[in-house]
Amino acid sequence: MTPDAVTSSVKPMAQAAKDAGATLVSITAFARSPLAAMADISLVAGMGDLSFREEVTVTSRIPQTILMAGLIAALSEELAEVATAAKALALEVISGNLDE
């Protein structure tokens, strides 16, 4: 989930995940974004038909955040220990990019 799917950090991370065999799922307000085009599954949740500028300056990412929170909760419950290991790995990767 990103306001600019072609940033220097998001697109390479998404490609690395795909190259490693992961199913790439995008959560976006823009069905035709570059990240959605890369994704195997694209979940579109937004605030109506807005331009990118309006989406960034006027609206929030609340719909995407709610969707993501629900998916994480459901997957965590379903996958148990596998989900715990995946969360730890994700936090490790994220912590390596906090200086950006």
Characterise this structure.
The structure is a single chain. The chain is mainly alpha-helical and 100 residues long. 54% of the residues lie in helices and 8% in strands. The model has no long low-confidence stretch (mean pLDDT 80).
Short précis:
The chain is 54% helix and 8% strand. The protein is mainly alpha-helical and 100 residues long.
Percentage of helical residues? 40-55%
What is the number of E strands? Answer: 2
Number of helices: 5
What is the strand content? 5-15%
Largest sheet: 2 strands, parallel
Distance between the termini: 16 Å
* Low-pLDDT residue spans: none
Structural class: mainly alpha
Q: What's the alpha carbon Rg, rounded to whole Å?
A: 14 Å
Series of H and E elements: HEHEHHH
Tell me, what's the shape? Answer: globular
Average pLDDT confidence is: 80
What topology, given as strand order, has the largest sheet?
A: 1-2
Secondary structure: elements and pairs:
Layout (H helix, E strand, L loop, with lengths): L9 H10 L5 E4 L5 H5 L2 E4 L7 H6 L4 H18 L1 H15 L5
Parallel strand pairs: 1-2
Give short descriptive properties of this protein.
mainly alpha; 100 residues; 5 helices; two-stranded parallel ribbon
